[in-house]
User: Fold these one by one.
Assistant:
Number 1:
Amino acid sequence: MSCLVLFRKRYKDSLKRTLSACDIDVQGWSDLATDRSAWRCIIQEATTKFEEERITAANNKRLRRDNPTQTSTPHPCRHCSRICRARIGLISHERACRQRHGQPP
Ligand SMILES: [Zn+2]
């Protein structure tokens, strides 16, 4: 008999995950929330910081995606020294390049 335990996410689980993502103390958040004006300031600062970090991470990810030569090693052709971005492209190019130069495949 297998022991399969399914956890159903509750509202408070989602709330704790969001608070953790915003660097707010998960254990004492209810005490902090009793002072409403201070709580609003904490939430405002935390969400602003979280949003800035999210945007920075998204921009960095976009830069890596748009400029793949920085992250991946180039693959030069052995016959004509052309640089291919991906290994599969290099294999395809070398096959055509060998035929172009009269070498057997
Ligand atoms: Zn080539």
Number 2:
Amino acid sequence: MQNAYLEKDKINPLSLANIREFTQRLWKDFLDEKSFAIDATCGNGFDTLFLAQILGEKGRVDSYDIQKVAIEKTKMLLSEKNLLHKVHLIEKCHSAFLRPASLVVYNLGFFPVSNQVVTTTASLLLQSLEHALSFAKAVSITCYPGHAEGKKEKEAVEKQLQLLPPKLWNISFHSWINRKNAPCLFWLTKQSR
Ligand SMILES: C[S@@+](CC[C@H](N)C(=O)[O-])C[C@H]1O[C@@H](n2cnc3c(N)ncnc32)[C@H](O)[C@@H]1O
């Protein structure tokens, strides 16, 4: 029998070569068109754009970044695609969110086109995660252990997530184990009761 998921989206199971593609598939499966999502690190705006594309007119994305340049880049990208009306851009640290949402996504690390090296940090991430876990139904955390702060973040998040009760949260970990310092993903979904 054909796998229903592959049939539905015509996915080539051999194409999972890239972490962004992999995470975006999980988000797409999880969200419905009226969902609210949070992009906790908007950067260039690629993840925010993807979320705005898959959500319907009643959906919404709140996108956070501490750098003005990231907020402006994301604004420009979303305007070009006529999707800015679905997105609320917030120039603010993700340690506390203004509104809840069913999905929170973190794509950690630094803003790739900026000269300034402003990277996410383990301590702010843990604060943010605690807040996200109080309302979200799913959380996606992409880590880049190939740089020093990224390694710290990955280890800190892993330690924290191991403490969460399995009756409340399903937590899986994905990586490309034959690549040195490959990015990795923690994918959390709340148990439905
Ligand atoms: C790897 S980039 C995100 C990539 C982005 N999602 C995309 O699709 O292009 C990480 C971003 O996190 C931002 N950042 C760092 N610390 C932050 C914080 N405490 N709160 C919110 N954003 C933060 C950085 O400014 C940077 O733009």
